[in-house]
Amino acid sequence: MAYVQKQTVDSIFAGSNILRHEKCDSYLLFSGETSLGDGFRAFLYFLGLAYCFIGLSAISSRFFRSMENVVKHSRRVVEIDPCPSTEIVRYKKVWNYTIADITLLAFGTSFPQISLATIDALRNLGSLYAGGLGPGTLVGSAAFDLFPIHAVCVVVPKAGELKKISDIGVWLVELFWSFWAYIWLYIILEVWTPNVITIWEALLTVLQYGLLLTHAYAQDKRWPYLSLPIARTERPEDWVPEEANSRKAKKNVHDEYCEILQVGENENQNIVDIFSIHSVDSSDPLYQKVPETEDVAESSHEPLIKLEDANVFALWKEQFMDALMLESPESRKLNNVYLRLARIFWQSLLAPWRLLFAFVPPYHIAHGWVAFISTLIFISGIAYVVTKLTDIISCVTGINAYVIAFTALAAGTSWPDLVASKIAVERQTTADSAIANITCSNSVNIYVGIGVPWLINTAYNFIAYGQPLRIQNAEGLSFSLLVFFSTSVCCIVVLVFRRLTLGAELGGPRFWAWVTCVYFMLLWVIFVVLSSLRVSGII
């Protein structure tokens, strides 16, 4: 992809003018783009940005399915019963639920923002000033995670249904590290070395992610001296308990093996439930289980499909066949012609993405790790295109790059976070993973999403120039941190109030759920408006 970038750092961030009148000579694919009107060019680039966000949404389904196989991996443990002197075979999950929430779930759903920030940092290697898209997107994404995603989650449960956090201790630990992340960022930006980031500050930022993991695991295991003396209540052993009367999916078994129905047959099957991994008998119609045999009946957590039982290339071929299918059997049954046409149009819009993502290997290979890493690579590629489009949009429209980062980029790249938390609320009997994904994603955004890019830039500047990394428009970023911290306190206070009055953070009477939803959205609007006005020099 050809791309020419001729604007300077000062032109991106300087000035109080929202719109500039200078001609933008940057282009994405062809130099002839510069001959088009600025308004038409901005429209096309915004359209391309929206299409990239659709791609992120499409790849999220494959990401979740691969992560599902990673987390459900169990190891065989043989114990000797001394009385009858017999072997007892048990299968224990490799992943701890708390660590899985903070690493695979939170890190994975935040990977679009992390990729964008890292690419922005690599493009600025050799410059004494840090790029602005990364930090702006990550702070804006934190606000989107905390406010709109909480707003969605609080109304997802059915009317009157309550879902609360069962392990308050782990949530308090995650919440502490989430708040501390933004306090720490403000300290290094405004207190220790104003407007400058040293290599040691960047390194300490990254290392605190390890402290978060250690502290959360210690709280989950109730280690003495490192955990809060708060008992865990009402958390099912398998996190998502097996339903007593689960629906049995109709089975289409070919050659006595299971078949994994591919996503994409209709828009209601775009996302696979990542939390069904904790149930012995998944009621998700997307899956058909392998018939029990003597060697798999020993395990209470038998895999949905085994590599030796599957024709890998047949499954891979099926992915491409499904990607080219524009109308599903369910869609053909619809009597409404307009609805059928709308679905066909949407599937046609998704077809290029689906065909591209069909190259992701089947997600049951190597416990899902191959597909997991492949999806992250695709997400990084989309993030690279997003950074290019954002630079050109800022150049053409004159809108401050930070404003675009706070709004469009933050919302678009946070879509996987929204999907993950929504699924968690729908499937789990508690609110633990849904809210943990929000708080942990915010921590990951700072410790990894900002820490790693800054560590790359500071290390390069230290080695090449012996200079620290300077932060352009650090005052605007610090102001956004203060606004975010103030509004986030208001958000957490409401969650605590709901716990004390209604007995749960999510759900409850429909009226109060919607009141809470509107309140959270209002907090997000306040953050976006104040931050945008500040970085634009208006206030």
UniProtKB/TrEMBL annotation:
<feature type="transmembrane region" description="Helical">
    <location>
        <begin position="168"/>
        <end position="187"/>
    </location>
</feature>
<feature type="transmembrane region" description="Helical">
    <location>
        <begin position="42"/>
        <end position="64"/>
    </location>
</feature>
<feature type="transmembrane region" description="Helical">
    <location>
        <begin position="511"/>
        <end position="533"/>
    </location>
</feature>
<dbReference type="InterPro" id="IPR004837">
    <property type="entry name" value="NaCa_Exmemb"/>
</dbReference>
<feature type="transmembrane region" description="Helical">
    <location>
        <begin position="366"/>
        <end position="385"/>
    </location>
</feature>
<feature type="transmembrane region" description="Helical">
    <location>
        <begin position="392"/>
        <end position="412"/>
    </location>
</feature>
<dbReference type="GO" id="GO:0012505">
    <property type="term" value="C:endomembrane system"/>
</dbReference>
<feature type="transmembrane region" description="Helical">
    <location>
        <begin position="136"/>
        <end position="156"/>
    </location>
</feature>
<feature type="domain" description="Sodium/calcium exchanger membrane region">
    <location>
        <begin position="45"/>
        <end position="216"/>
    </location>
</feature>
<keyword id="KW-0812">Transmembrane</keyword>
<dbReference type="InterPro" id="IPR044880">
    <property type="entry name" value="NCX_ion-bd_dom_sf"/>
</dbReference>
<feature type="transmembrane region" description="Helical">
    <location>
        <begin position="94"/>
        <end position="116"/>
    </location>
</feature>
<dbReference type="Pfam" id="PF01699">
    <property type="entry name" value="Na_Ca_ex"/>
</dbReference>
<keyword id="KW-1133">Transmembrane helix</keyword>
<keyword id="KW-0813">Transport</keyword>
<feature type="transmembrane region" description="Helical">
    <location>
        <begin position="477"/>
        <end position="499"/>
    </location>
</feature>
<keyword id="KW-0406">Ion transport</keyword>
<dbReference type="GO" id="GO:0016020">
    <property type="term" value="C:membrane"/>
</dbReference>
<feature type="transmembrane region" description="Helical">
    <location>
        <begin position="341"/>
        <end position="360"/>
    </location>
</feature>
<feature type="transmembrane region" description="Helical">
    <location>
        <begin position="199"/>
        <end position="218"/>
    </location>
</feature>
<protein>
    <recommendedName>
        <fullName>Sodium/calcium exchanger membrane region domain-containing protein</fullName>
    </recommendedName>
</protein>
<keyword id="KW-0472">Membrane</keyword>
<dbReference type="GO" id="GO:0030001">
    <property type="term" value="P:metal ion transport"/>
</dbReference>
<feature type="domain" description="Sodium/calcium exchanger membrane region">
    <location>
        <begin position="367"/>
        <end position="531"/>
    </location>
</feature>
<dbReference type="InterPro" id="IPR051171">
    <property type="entry name" value="CaCA"/>
</dbReference>
<dbReference type="GO" id="GO:0055085">
    <property type="term" value="P:transmembrane transport"/>
</dbReference>
